[in-house]
Amino acid sequence: MESDQAARPASPHLRVGIVTVGVAGAYVVVVLLFGGLGSFGPFLLAPVVLLSLLFGGIAVLAGLVLKANRRRPRLWMHIGVFLANIVLLYVLSIGPGNYFALIDLRTRLAVALTGGQGRLQAWAVELLAKPRDGMEDGGDWRVPKQYWSEQVHRLRPGSVFIAPVFEDKQWAVCLNYGSAFFHWSIVVGPPGSRPDPKSNGPTGDDVWYRWRDGLYDWQQP
Q1: pLDDT for residue 61 is more than 50
Q2: Interatomic CA distance for residues 65 and 82, integer angstroms
Q3: With contact defined as beta carbons under 8 Å apart, do 46 and 99 qualify?
Q4: I need a labelling partner for 95 at 20 to 30 A (CA). Which of 68, 145, 207, 213 fits?
């Protein structure tokens, strides 16, 4: 009986759970490959993926109402896929794999693959020490593309500004990404520079990820 049960196709409930696990894995890959620099779409996908994982977990659990699915090995398959959905739901929502953490990881990888954090910081420190001739001053200084290093061009920010976002109104070079709804910046300054809490937006939801002394990822939901 058990071998006959194992040979039967998986239940529809189980297939739903397996599909939602696959969707979550594909979402992580998309964010890591495309969601960190210059792309807004994966941010909109995040709630859809979380809802699909919740639905997948409920579907698999509902499958255990059927007696045929409570026999081994189907029982263990249902339990395993149910736990996979629940664990992924936690990891991708409030856990270490949430969208903001994935964006930070993707951005770090992009910097590492284009020359490293040290190279980026050296360019920023040199830029901050130069006269700002040719830069527009609208409260912050817009850095023209001819001032960008080869690494910065490869990182493809939407814009680059020099702004007083560090403590005591110290200037930092900000590589900006995203849109008005959610945007983030690679913020670079001399060693010893630290974020100014007053630079947070009106909602106070800004997140600072410290990469190294004087180098941060500043996310503004």
Answers
A1: yes
A2: 14
A3: yes
A4: 213
Confidence (pLDDT) at 199: 67
On whether the CB atoms of residues 194 and 167 are closer than 8 A, the answer is: yes
User: How far apart, in whole angstroms, are the C-alpha atoms of residue 183 and residue 152?
Assistant: 18
Question: Closest Cα to residue 77, out of 53, 60, 94, 98?
Answer: 60
DSSP string, 117-174: HHHHHHHHHHHHHS--TT-EESSSEE--GGGS-HHHHHH--SEEEEEEEEGGGEEEEE
- Which residues 6+ apart lie within 8 Å of 153 measured at CB? 145
Separation between Cα atoms, residue 64 and residue 98, nearest integer Å: 29
187 pLDDT above the threshold of 90: yes
